[in-house]
Amino acid sequence: MSKNQRTLGQKAIFHIKFFFRKFPAIPYIFKWLVISLIIGALVGSASAGFLQSLEWTTNFRESHLWLIALLPVAGFLIGLLYYYWGKDIEAGNNLLIDNIHDPKGIIPFKMAPFVYLGTIVTHFFGGSAGREGTALQMAAAIADQLSKPFKLDRNERRILMISAIAAGFGSVFGTPLAGAVFGLEVFLIGRIRYNAIFPAFASAILADWATNLWNVKHTHYYIDFIPKLEFLPILYSILAGMAFGICAAAFSKTIHWAGSVFKSKIKYPPFRPVVGGTIIALAVLFIGTTRYIGLGVPVIVESFEKQLPLYDFALKMVFTIVTLSAGFKGGEVTPLFFIGATLGSALSLFIPLPFGLLAGMGFVAVFAGATNTPLACMLMGIELFGAECGVYVAIACVVSYLLSGHNSIYSKQKIGEAKNRRYENQQDRSVSDFL
Fold first, then answer.
1. How far apart, in Å, are the Cα atoms of 54 and each of 117, 138, 216, 303?
2. What pLDDT does 419 receive?
3. pTM of the model
4. Which end of the chain has fewer surrounding CB within 10 Å, N or C?
């Protein structure tokens, strides 16, 4: 190599180093774009397969209702699977949140097939559960396997976990913006981790795109009338938000209480879903309808179309709490959508707002109060129902968030900024400390 060539090479290296020193975000963006592309493709495809499986499972169960009688047997098998082979992943979403706060060992990949199988079985035989928990756990188990190949340190693993949660949430509900903010918001009440903002949004958007490439359709909701912003509608929205916040707190407290009762009364874990499954199967037989099991999406759609009775939301709460606290697998979020939407629709009996608008507000506001993620829920409302209802949705979500207190369906959430003076010196304590 000639002297001139060496000089040119040295100059090129100097200019490259100077460029990266002047724009230090470039390597970061490139690295996380590559990782986000992989997460998006894998998680989006996994969500697509899961959603299609869930649709087939639901249709088959509704055509063969005798399967519900086997729910206790299915629960026993799920209990055995997790008791003998899945103790290290049984914490579910709380394990993911724990790994953001304090990254330890790589999340075992088996979490993905275990929670997928457990959720499909739960829905196949008639449990009342959702899909968000499964999507998040599948996403995290898949994404965390990238930690070693990319030689990620502890802080980067936190970002990876946030990105996985964003991708799983955004792709399973078709709401990538809400998914990204949910990942940034869910683990720490009152604070957002901005150093993960690019990977979270990139992963959520790419995962949703990948899911759409598989031609998976998401449910659409329509609010036919939104009143003009005036004093009285805003006041009514605040009142509705208070009801949603109380409902969210009641759900969170009750599901943790019911879980502790199952654990204290039934020492052998595989027997817990047997008892829970028996209660659900007998309840379905007694009331003569499958309206309150599974995801309940048809009832959610119905809540936007007509005024529903007050007992719909209460019965769904009971079915979901018994199912999940007994040890069946699935998420809480879609049942919370059901509870919120049906409660909102029923509140139109007392609150003079359109039942469709109240259903939409309840859909996201009960979820906001139960997970302490008001910003994600505002965005979800706008993505699902349109920007026209944005102010009403925002009011309901904020009021519900504040009124639900330091309760959560996720016991490993920590307090970043207290909601009131009572907890202002309790930063970094887990929600579990107050249950």
1. 11, 14, 12, 22
2. 76
3. 0.94
4. N
